[in-house]
């Protein structure tokens, strides 16, 4: 399967997926390209190291969301992308992309959805002083971090956790879970 990964920032999940494609549980698949909406994102450096073609496409360069997503679709067609993996892509996917890739886009979110959707899932859980939070992997629909849930894993918030230690724990769980769940989804 030819995958596109969409990311906006650091790209630690991107890198884990790239490693697993190179030598691990995703080795029968290919990352055809990285789609990035932020020219300053560190994920671009990571993609260079793995020699993965990168397209930086910014909404501000297009008159509408539909036009922005049509520009992405063009690259996906060029790279023969069959499945899309969101890994820290901080935008809502519109119908222009959803229609041709229906049931073929998954996302990872750093909380136990439907709790704490949005951009700050870890911080929102931490501030709410809940005893546990976690990680969710789900199919993408028109909503913000909605769509059918594929897998979830809980993470306990210890009394001595800081936001930073909680972030570290969540990212560890993400890095363990995402490649395995993606491999399973692609096998199905
Ligand atoms: C991850 O924690 C991911 O779950 C989150 O962005 C982070 C990206 O980290 N996504 C969302 O919050 C989506 N709503 P990374 O760039 O190091 O992979």
How would you characterize this protein structure?
The active site is at 109 (proton donor). Residues 1-182 form the Formyl transferase N-terminal domain. N(1)-(5-phospho-beta-D-ribosyl)glycinamide binds at residues 11-13. With 188 residues, this protein is an alpha/beta fold. It has a domain at 2-102: Rossmann fold, CATH 3.40.50.170. 37% of the residues lie in helices and 22% in strands. The protein has helices spanning 12-23, 43-49, 65-78, 95-98, 121-127, 163-187, and strands at 2-7, 30-36, 54-56, 83-86, 105-109, 132-139, 149-156. The protein has a 7-stranded mixed sheet, sandwiched between helices. Helix 1 (12-23) packs parallel to helix 6. The termini are close together. The model has no long low-confidence stretch (mean pLDDT 97). The structure holds glycinamide ribonucleotide. Glycinamide ribonucleotide (GAR) is lined by residues 7, 9-14, 87-88, 108-110, 119, 121, 145, 174. Glycinamide ribonucleotide (GAR) binds at residues 7, 9-14, 87-88, 108-110, 119, 121, 145, 174.
What tags apply to this protein structure?
188 residues, alpha/beta, Rossmann fold, 7-stranded mixed beta sheet, globular, binds glycinamide ribonucleotide
Ordered list of secondary-structure elements with their pairings:
Elements: E1 2-7, H1 12-23, E2 30-36, H2 43-49, E3 54-56, H3 65-78, E4 83-86, H4 95-98, E5 105-109, H5 121-127, E6 132-139, E7 149-156, H6 163-187
Parallel strand pairs: 1-2, 1-4, 2-3, 4-5
Antiparallel strand pairs: 5-6, 6-7
Helix pairs in contact: 1-6
């Amino acid at each position: 399967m030819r995958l596109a990964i969409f990311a906006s920032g650091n790209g630690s999940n991107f890198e884990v997926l790239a490693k697993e494609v190179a030598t691990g549980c995703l080795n029968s698949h290919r990352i055809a390209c990285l789609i990035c909406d932020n020219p300053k994102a560190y994920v671009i450096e990571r993609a260079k190291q793995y020699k993965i073609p990168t397209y930086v496409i910014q909404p501000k360069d297009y008159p509408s969301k539909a036009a922005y997503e049509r520009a992405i679709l063009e690259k996906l067609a060029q790279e023969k992308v069959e499945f899309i993996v969101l890994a820290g892509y901080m935008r809502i996917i519109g119908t222009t992309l959803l229609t041709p890739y229906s049931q073929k886009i998954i996302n990872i979110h750093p909380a136990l959805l439907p709790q704490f959707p949005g951009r700050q899932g870890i911080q929102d859980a931490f501030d709410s002083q809940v005893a546990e939070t976690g990680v969710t992997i789900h199919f993408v629909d028109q909503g913000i971090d909605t769509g059918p849930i594929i897998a979830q894993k809980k993470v306990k918030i210890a009394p001595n956790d800081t936001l930073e230690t909680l972030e570290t724990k969540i990212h560890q769980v993400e890095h363990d879970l995402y490649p395995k769940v993606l491999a399973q989804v692609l096998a199905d």
